Amino acid sequence: MGRLEGRIAIVTGAARGIGASVARLFVQEGAHVVLADVRDELGGALAAELGEHADYVHLDVGVESEWAAALETTHRRFGAPTVLVNNAGVFRMQPIESLSMEDYMEVIRTNQIGVFLGMRSCIAPMRESGGGAIVNISSVQGLEGLTNALAYCASKFAVTGMTKAAAIELAKHRIRVNSVHPGPIATMLVAESHGVTDIAEIASREPGVPLKRWGRPEDVARLVLYLACDESSYSTGGAFTVDGGLTAGLVYE
After folding, report:
1. How far apart are CA 190 and CA 27, in angstroms?
2. Among 24, 191, 197, 203, which one is most buried in terms of CB atoms within 10 A?
């Protein structure tokens, strides 16, 4: 049996990158997975590729009514969700002085409010199912700062804090909540933030971490799988890094 046999999962931002890797791995491990994203063509194609254990739903995580529709689709297609992976996010780099309120709130709406709405939406079905697991994708920028990324850092630090608060509150319902903090991962989101369209170009650069390589989406997905399955049954409120040693300290040679 797979490590997620019989589980029903919602993965946001699942059309590409880390979310797509999580969805693939979850299906391989026996879960039924609803892939949620705003990139309908990519998300629908991936769900079709994954077969009968997967479905796709359009979801802008910052819109409350769209969460209700996503939960309805999940119930109709597979049943009550017992795993939620809040992965959808945006990344913007901009100096503080030129950061408009609109740009700031765009990041907060997706990265912070989207996580809040996702957790809140899944509490009732998880409670009624006897428990569940929520994995919130934060960032190493939810643990330390980064120049020209105030809005992103604010949103990811919020995810770190919300995870701990939710873990305490939801433990009585046997709902575990943990956060994952990726470091430099070679994805299109990161490539686009650097103004390039080729992931290989980003991955070829020295990331400046002790392990001396960029992470891959699969590296994050394997950690998410661990937190979603029973192997981590005594872990809640934790902040798990997958960063090549970045937050351990600088490399001097």
Report:
1. 25
2. 24
Please measure the distance between the N-terminal and C-terminal CA atoms of the chain and give it in whole angstroms: 46
Which residue has tokens 């330390």?
Answer: 144
The answer to whether the beta carbons of residues 211 and 241 sit under 8 Å apart is no
Answer left, alpha or beta for residue 54, where phi above 0 means left and psi between -120 and 50 means alpha.
beta
| pTM to 2 decimal places | 0.95
HSE toward the beta carbon, residue 113, CA cutoff 13 A? 15
Grouping H, G, I as helix, E, B as strand and the rest as coil, residue 185 is strand
Mean pLDDT throughout 173-179? Answer: 98
Annotated active-site residue 152? The verdict is yes
Establish if 1 belongs to a structural domain. no
pLDDT at 199: 75
Residue of 18, 69, 66, 14 lying closest to 45 (CA atoms):
14
CB 37 within 8 A of CB 6: no
pLDDT tens-digit series, residues 72-119: 999 999 999 999 999 999 998 999 999 999 999 999 999 999 999 999
The residue annotated as part of the active site, out of 152, 226, 234, 252, is: 152
Tally of domains in the chain: 1
Residue 19, domain member (yes or no): yes
For 235-245, the pLDDT digits (tens) are 999 999 999 99
Which CATH number is 110's domain given?
A: 3.40.50.720
Number of Cα atoms under 13 Å in the Cβ half of residue 154 = 16
Query: 102: which 2 tokens?
Result: 């609109």
How many whole angstroms separate alpha carbon 236 and alpha carbon 168?
8
- Give the max Cα distance, the chain: 57
Instruction: Give the single-character DSSP code of 36.
Output: E
> Which residue range forms the structural domain that includes residue 43?
8-183+216-239
